[in-house]
Fold this sequence. Notes:
The chain contains five helices and six strands. The chain has a six-stranded antiparallel β-sheet with strand order 1-2-6-5-4-3, with helices on both faces.
Amino acid sequence: xxxxxxxxxxxxxxxxxxxxxxxxxxxxxxxxxxxxxxxxxxxxxxxxxxxxxxxxxxxxxxxxxxxxxxxxxxxxxxxxxxxxxxxxxxxxxxxxxxxxxxxxxxxxxxxxxxxxxxxxxxxxxxxxxxxxxxxxxxxxxxxxxxxxxxxxxxxxxxxxxxxxxxxxxxxxxxxxxxxxx
Length: 181
């Protein structure tokens, strides 16, 4: 299931990258990348907007801890080529009393911080939310009792949609597709 979720996030990022310039992005320079203050060169390398990976990571951590999640659990290993292009945030096993309320509060804090909600889908008790900001997108999931140990699965996956991250995402998706066949 984790592999399927990761492949879906990568595929979504590839699709978003393919269309990211269709409406223009006022934060971009004529060369396509926006300047960014702070952060490492590697973190800025793929950025299609004004945010670098450390800013996005801090915004996710801050929103989630404000909503009651204890800390970010290490997610599955991110492939080397995608480490400057993606962030995987998962709630730790010790969850707040009402994880759905905390999930919604995390999303609300991100929206208040300038993330634009681009879509929401609810099926039974599972919710999926999409958000965009500064050349990045976030896909967030809340799935009650979705883990093997019976705890709720809460995940936020942020992807840089900049041109430098397009090829690493395509390569990763191709590799995962090959390994399934």
